[in-house]
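Question:
When you can, review this sequence-structure pair and walk me through the tokens.
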Amino acid sequence: MIYKTKHDRLILKAVETKETQVGRIVLPDLGYEKSSTYEVVATGPGFYSPLTGQFIPTQYQVGDTVFCNKAVMNSLGEVDGVEYFATRDNEPLGYIVDDENED
């Protein structure tokens, strides 16, 4: 399935969290809340600033892993057991960068 979105919107899907091991200590995912880590599935091109009229491109690319608060996302439902969400480009709190390709 191909997803497309408009303006400065992102479509995200949840990334499964795993148990983390530090030395011999296992830190399990206790399941208090669903993952706040998401993979970007689709991005819009960007938007024109209402103040300056300047085009502001989307800062994320398909495949990026972002951290986002679930309160600012809209659920798009499930497809093949995977839940998808939509949010604006400025809502993610951060993203993961490869050590080799740091921005």
The longest strand covers residues 37-43.
